[in-house]
Amino acid sequence: MQRCITVAAALLIAITCMAQPQLAVRIGMVVGSPIPLSDIPAGSTGEAVPGLLGGLSIDVPVTDAFSIIVEPQFVKYASRFATVLDQQPYIDRVPIALPDGTVTTLDVSTTFTGVAVGAFDNNYLQLPVLARYALGSSWSVLAGGYLGWMMSTGSSATGTGTVGIRPEVVQRNLEFGNRMNTLDLGTQLGAQWKVFSDVSADFRVNYGLTSVFASDFITVQQRVHNVFAHFSVSMVIL
After folding, report:
1. What is the pTM of this model?
2. Which of 52, 108, 110, 167 has the fewest CB within 10 Å, making it most exposed?
3. Domains parsed from the chain with CATH numbers
């Protein structure tokens, strides 16, 4: 993590030293969800929850039409979901009473079949680095990538169903919030419209290349990617 931060800081300094940068304040909204791109169980549903985006935009001109944009920013990615689980690998934490009266917990590898209902609520510190090419006096296209660090999460999921071969229906905390991937790498594509000389509006599509879950989280075996649309307005301040 420290190495990533050092590389990002060095990149930011190097880019801003290339030419006289333009500094803007950027604020907006994001809509989307972390989703698996394959093996989505039949009957699963999701609902986007709008999130906040805010930060700075540093636009460094390279030519009259081409520039590099660096944007340190905060972004909240949130959504609600319900998904079907069919014989999903699962670690059941079974309380065991010992002879001395104390209680310990035994981790049992088993399966879970039922429905999981929950929400993603992840706060990221994000650093997009984008190339901007002006198509004229008003419109530009944007393309690049981003590096993100998860600052905090309120993600959670509760499973209702059966564990292993036992017939009784139970509820279990599926521990989504404890098994998130703190590193988020991805791409951004979009367009920018210059509304006034110092005010611009952006629309972008954000696609995460890394899974939002830790690689050793066996309950969710498929890769789940952040897929979000960003809508924002920026105002030049320097």
Report:
1. 0.85
2. 167
3. 22-236 (2.40.160.20)
3-state secondary structure the chain: CHHHHHHHHHHHHHHHCCCCCEEEEEEEEEEEEEEECCCCCCCCEEEEECEEEEEEEEEEECCCCEEEEECCEEEEEEEEEEEEEEEEEEEEEEEEECCCCCEEEEEEEEEEEEEEEEEEEEEEEEEEEEEEEECCCCEEEEEEEEEEEEEEECCEEEEEEEECCCCCCEEEECCHHHCECCEEEEEEEEEEEEEECCEEEEEEEEEEEEECECCCCCCCCCCEEEEEEEEEEEEECC
Q: What is the pLDDT of residues 181-206, one digit of tens each?
A: 999 999 999 999 999 999 999 999 99
pLDDT tens digits, 28-52: 999 999 998 777 878 889 999 999 9
